[in-house]
Each structure stands twice: as structure tokens, then as C-alpha cells.
Amino acid sequence: FFFFFLMIRRPPRSTQSRSSAASDVYKRQVLNYLQNELHKSIYVLSNYSELTVEHFMKSFKDFHVSIPAENIYCSSMLAPKYLAKNYPEVKNVYYLGYINLKSQLEKYGYTAIGVEDNHTKLTSYDEVIKTYLSRGIHAVVVGYDHYINAFKIYMASIAVSKGARFLATNSDPSYDVKGRLMPDTGAMLSAIEVSTGKKAEIVGKPSKIPFDLICEDHGIKDRSKVLMIGDTIETDINGATAAGIDGCFVGKMKEGINAKYVVPSVSFLSDSVNFKIAS
Predict the structure, then answer these.
(1) Which residues lie below 8 Å from residue 115, measured CB to CB, with a gap of 6+?
(2) What is the pLDDT of residue 257?
(3) Angle in degrees, CA 190, 194, 197, rounded to 5
(4) 165 with 138: CB under 8 angstroms?
(5) What is the largest CA-CA distance in the chain?
């Protein structure tokens, strides 16, 4: 049998277009076809650190599709999960990101330390150190932070320089909003990496880490029976390839694409004739 990793691309930072609404119809058809006719297990993997499993559960409910909560992985929960598995000594975590990242860290028992929105009350870097760094930071987790500022970058950089474990939810450099490229987590992360000379461990795509964690959680031994369906070469397909998993790229054929399969659109996947690749 096959397992499918399918990403529902609905960024919370952008406005849904008419075309994406039509795409959602096809995604629902594909999900229902995979589950109800092909009887495949579906695992959802997303780089959006602003979202939680609960957000995805609501989206799938709107899709009239049922996917178990334990089959949904977003980078906000992958970070504490990876920390717990690999660095049991970590207790206090400084995070850059939304409140959802903080809640996921706390769910795993970590003390989540972050510069709140009232950071403007801090008037000097010495005050930053006194207020936050003195509490002891064992790890730094960088997620997408709409309120990124010099204080946050400074504190993260100092903590990493002092030996704190250094993780990031993802390394996406930008995201598209109505044709405009906006800085994503990778752009924010680079400021800390450049200032410290250290590279973060990426727990989201295109790292193999999330694929390894999913396969381990669900006892998936034979990765030749896994297919990653995604619409981004740099994250979805390259991440799957790094983990020894075949990829199915949804989009236009381009030179250098290393996906095993390429389909022009999600609608193609809703046609049972085209699922000979899963037989």
C-alpha cells in the first residue's frame, strides 16, 4: 500500500483567490478519492509555523474530509518534538514566532520565552539581556514572526553564541501575496545565522527531519511505498528526495525537476485513470 503526504496550501497571510478556491474543490476530490477509493493513508506536512494541528483540523472539516489529528504535522509542533527527542537537557526555549509556536513548546513542557509586543519598553540591549537572557536559554527556535525586530534578533544571536541549541521551523526565503514577495522565516533566520556564524537545524521541509519523524511515528519501514505530493520543488520534492521518498510535483514541467512524477494540476490527480502510479 502507499502513503501520501499532501499539502493544502492556504497561507494565513494571503488572500484566497478565485482560482485557489477552485483548486480547493479538486483537493477535496483528491483527498476523498485517496481515502475512500484507493484506501490510502494521508499525512499532511506544512511549513507554516503560525498554524497548529487544530487549524488544519478545522480546514479539513470545511473540506468535508476526515484526517486523524495524529496524521497532521506542522512545523510549530515539529520543533518541540525534535527537541524532546534529541536534546532532553533543554528546558528553557527562546522563540521568534506567533503565539501558536509558544503554545506548542509549552505543550511539550518547555518554558517558552519570547519578547512580547511591549518590547518597545526596553530601551537598551543591556536591558534585553537583564530581562530575558538572565533567565537562561537552552535553545532558540525561529519561526515566522510578523513583529521581528532588532531586540529579538539580538537576543537570539547572543543565546546562540553562548551555546544554545539553534533550530528553525523552516527556511523558506519568501512567500507570495498578490504577486508581491514578502520575507518569510528563512529571511529572518539568515540575520541570526550571519551574525553568529552558525547554521540552524531546520525541522521543516526541505530537511529530511520531518519525513523521518513521520515515518518513525507511524512505523513506516518501506519508504518505496511513500509518495510526497507537493507544489514546491525546493521544499516538498527536495525534502522528500533527501528522505528517500518519491515525489510527485504538481505544476509545470521544468528542467532539473527531480520528482519521479510531474502532473500539471491538482485536478489531474482527481482522475482515477491517472492514478496508475499508485497501483
Answers:
(1) 122, 128, 132, 149, 151, 152, 155
(2) 80
(3) 125
(4) yes
(5) 65
Average pLDDT for residues 164-193, to the nearest whole number?
Answer: 93
Is 104 strand, coil or helix?
helix
User: Which CB contacts under 8 angstroms, 24+ apart, belong to 270-277?
Assistant: 270/26, 270/29, 270/30, 270/33, 272/33, 272/37, 275/33, 275/38, 277/227, 277/248
Q: Flag the least confident range among 88-97, 131-140, 198-207, 214-223.
A: 131-140
Strand order of the β-sheet with 201-202 is 111-113, 92-96, 139-142, 165-168, 201-202
CB-count burial class (<10 Å; 0-12, 13-18, 19+) for 14: middle
Given this model, what pLDDT does residue 83 score? 97
Q: Which residue has the higher pLDDT, 140 or 58?
A: 140
Which stretch, 24-28, 128-132, 225-229, 262-266, has highest mean pLDDT?
225-229
DSSP state of 272: G
Does residue 85 register a pLDDT over 50? yes
CB atoms within 10 A of CB 17: 10
Q: Decide: residue 184, CB within 10 A, 0-12 exposed, 13-18 middle, 19+ buried.
A: buried
Task: Say if residue 206 is preceded by a cis peptide, omega within 30 of 0.
Answer: yes
For the record, the C-alpha cell of 46 comes out as 506544512
